[in-house]
Each structure stands twice: as structure tokens, then as C-alpha cells.
């Protein structure tokens, strides 16, 4: 039998709303830590999608030193929202990234859950203050935004809304830590939170450089892996910058390279996500990565990320 962390008992059972990329990965993590999971999704192929997922994820669980079997007795699949959420200690919502859908979903969920239920949304961009707008009690609702795939990646951004209680934030941090994650309490609600804002700023420039023909798509990957990626995996960007300034640290870096940095901000591309751009970059992506299936590439990504994580822990 899978042992359950002592901090997790009060968070059992968990309801996972939405069985897409993120919901299935969260469900796997929760099950592998011994929790009972109700998986809700209105999709008609829920059973097939779920079975296929749990079969393909076994090797990743093994690499993570997590149990990969015996989930069936603790997993319920349902397309009945009331049945899914009644009696749940935690809800982790992963429906489509649409504000009105999430607003109605949480207002609906509120009708069936108890006052102490922790209500978390995986939303990548939508603040809890907006999602909870139709709820009567907004105090237990907040964002628990993972990095994909949540089973593997440590970061979860915990972002309270205007009306989220201090206790709910603390509960979310305890919950994610007990699952082996590295939650970060984000102090202010901003669109896109922190990790994606950083990632998207860099991706805007990377896509622009590829679109302009400055560099091939797969070469951007090599450039980042062999420079910024390696450094940032060790120090993060800010400490990396502090060390880039030599003995004078961050201040020296800014005084020395700041003007060049600022100049390059103005030189950066301002790509529009229109149909033409999507079509041009999609063609380039097929040329760069079309030699392998998405599943093969995702498996390679997971294996490499886990190897890096293991080294980091040492
Ligand atoms: N994909 C990522 O990299 C990523 C990373 C972090 C967070 N997120 C966030 O996680 C959430 C889910 O993203 P995803 O990539 O898993 O999307 P997805 O499209 O893979 O999955 C969404 C699921 O929601 C289901 N669904 C549709 N209508 C629903 C409803 N009314 N109620 C409940 N479920 C419904 C769909 O059937 C589908 O299975 C989004 O809010 C997204 O911003 C995504």
C-alpha cells in the first residue's frame, strides 16, 4: 500500500477537474502520493483517455521513484460535477483557460463543497480575484499554477486573490510541499504570474529571431541549453546577473552592461500572434522536430529533466 505523508491526511480526497494535459498529470501525482482522486471531465472519452494516460506514465513514475500501480481502487472517473466535488478536501481545477467557464465552474462547485474545502485553479493567467467573482465565499479560492508537467516540475505558483484568506494560502503551501513540490507564494496578482511572464518574454524574442531567419529553431534550443539554460538551472537569472558583475556584483553589472541591455530591449522584436505568423513558425517547427512523435519528444524531455533534478538534489 502507498504510504501517505502525514501532512496529506487532511487533504484527502482530492477532486481533479478537467482531464487534459495538466489535470491528468496532477491526478497521477496525487495518486502516487496515496491520495484518493475523483477525476471529473465532461468529455465522452474520459475512460479511454485516462486509461491510455496511466499506461504511458508508468515509466516516468518509476524514474521519479514513485509507485506506479494500485491506483484503480483510489480513482473514480465521473462526468457528474456534484458527485465529483461533494466531500472533497481539495479541488484542483484544470478546465479550459476561459474566464467565464472558470467563473461559472467555481460558483457551481461552491454549492456542493464544505466551507473548509481548498479550491485551487491551475490557471496560467487568470487571477483568483477574477475567477472567484461569482462565488459567495471567496476565502478558500486561489491559484495553484504548476509548470507542465506537474508530476515532474517542482514549481507551483501559489497566488491568492484579493479575498483569499491567509489560512488558505498556508494550506496550499503545506499541501504542495507534502507532494514534494516547491511552491512559491506570489505576493501580488499580475496577469501571467511570474514564471510564464519570464518565459514568454524570452519566447517572444526567440520566435522573432527564428521568424526573421537569424537562427534555426533547433539551434535556439542548443544556444539556450549551452549557455543561459545551464547557468540559470544553477543560479537563476538574478544571482546569475549578480555574479556576472564580478566583485561589484549586481550594481557593477548594471553600471557596466546596463546601457547595452537597455539598447537591446528596444531592438527586440514585437511579434504578432496572427495566422500568418502561426503558419510560418508551425512550418519551421515541423521541419525542426517532425522526425519524432510528440510522445517521444515529451519522454525525452521528462527523462532529461528528471536527470537534471536528481543531480541538483545531490
Ligand atoms: N498546458 C500547460 O502547459 C499548462 C501549464 C500550467 C497550467 N495550465 C492551465 O491548466 C488548465 C488546463 O490546461 P490544459 O493544457 O490541461 O488544457 P487541455 O485542453 O489539455 O484540458 C482541458 C480539459 O478540460 C476539459 N473541459 C472542457 N470543458 C470543461 C468544463 N466545463 N469543466 C471541466 N472540464 C472541462 C476538457 O475536456 C479537457 O479535457 C488551464 O487553465 C491552463 O491555463 C496549462
From TrEMBL:
Stretches assigned to the 3-hydroxyacyl-CoA dehydrogenase C-terminal domain: 192-260
Family: Belongs to the 3-hydroxyacyl-CoA dehydrogenase family.
Alphabetized Gene3D superfamilies for the sequence: N-(1-d-carboxylethyl)-l-norvaline Dehydrogenase, domain 2, NAD(P)-binding Rossmann-like Domain
Chief localisation class: cytoplasm
Keyword annotations of the record: Cytoplasm, NAD, Oxidoreductase, Phosphoprotein
One Gene Ontology term from the biological process aspect of the record: fatty acid metabolic process
Subcellular localization, as worded in the UniProt entry: Cytoplasm
Keyword NAD applies: yes
Pfam family, one: 3HCDH_N
Protein name listed in UniProt: L-gulonate 3-dehydrogenase
CC terms in the record's Gene Ontology section: cytoplasm
GO MF, one annotated term: NAD+ binding
UniProt pathway annotation: Lipid metabolism; butanoate metabolism
EC numbers: 1.1.1.45
Enzyme's top EC category: oxidoreductase
Domain (3-hydroxyacyl-CoA dehydrogenase NAD binding) ranges: 14-186
Lineage summary: Bacteria, Bacillati, Bacillota, Bacilli, Bacillales
Subunit note: Homodimer.
Site (Important for catalytic activity): 145
